[in-house]
Every structure is written in structure tokens, then in C-alpha cells.
Inverse folding.
């Protein structure tokens, strides 16, 4: 269903693949941006991009579970970080890498941005994931 490709003629990516290919007929989930809010809508980790990334990953896991998928089935993410400092982006990427999203690994783009939608928000992740058919052995 999901094939991850690292192109041998390009520079080897650290913990992501250059491309993800999904077979036609496969169910996909296109997830809205996962944000660092708790169940009550309160910001988690004010001023701390690492803590916010952890909450974002936890929320992403909840989103995936709700559609019958999981982190290992993610084909692609965009990781947004409010920072122009590559060290901060790297700290957030470390959280992504440790989360299970790097299993495979998925294809991803890491971006430093000026701001995000919620006051104090520093991290957001959008994702596209395969939704395995029940009983396929991939759920």
C-alpha cells in the first residue's frame, strides 16, 4: 500500500524519505493541522517548542486513531515551527524523529514560519496517512 523512496542520486536525508508512493484504491486520510492544545483547548508548553511538538504529536496520534490509522502509516507531513533559528527547527525535528513518524521513514517538509493560528502557538503538523483496511495486518 505505502512505498517509501530514498533517491540514491540525491543527498541522503537524515530521517525522512524523498517520496512516498501510495497505490491507487488505497484509503487516505488528509489531516488538518495538529496543534498544541489540550482537550480543553488550552495551549500546552507556552514558549517551549519541544513541549509543544510533543503535544502536537500526541494530538496527531489521536487524529490518526480516530480514522483507523497510526503514526507508522503517515506518508507525508508538513512541520511548521515559529522560528528562523535552524537549532530550534532541529529540536522540533528531534521530537518528530522520536515519535514513530520516522519509522519507514515518511516524507516531510520542515518549515520555519512567522506565526501560526493560535496565540503563543509555536508548532503545527499537517499529515497525510494511509488508512489500512480492517484485518489487513497493517492496522
Amino acid at each position: 500500500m505505502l512505498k517509501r523512496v530514498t533517491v540514491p542520486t540525491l543527498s541522503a536525508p537524515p530521517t525522512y524519505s524523498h517520496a512516498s508512493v501510495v497505490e491507487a484504491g488505497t484509503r487516505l486520510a488528509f489531516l488538518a493541522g495538529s496543534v498544541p492544545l489540550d482537550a480543553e483547548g488550552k495551549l500546552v508548553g507556552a514558549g517551549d517548542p519541544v513541549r509543544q511538538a510533543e503535544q502536537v504529536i500526541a494530538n496527531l496520534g489521536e487524529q490518526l486513531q480516530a480514522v483507523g490509522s497510526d503514526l507508522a502509516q503517515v506518508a507525508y507531513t508538513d512541520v511548521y515551527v515559529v522560528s528562523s533559528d535552524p537549532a530550534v527547527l532541529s529540536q522540533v525535528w528531534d521530537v518528530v524523529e522520536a515519535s514513530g513518524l520516522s519509522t519507514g521513514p515518511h516524507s516531510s517538509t520542515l518549515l520555519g514560519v512567522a506565526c501560526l493560528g493560535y496565540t503563543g502557538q509555536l508548532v503545527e503538523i499537517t499529515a497525510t496517512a494511509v488508512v489500512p483496511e480492517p484485518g489487513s495486518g497493517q492496522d
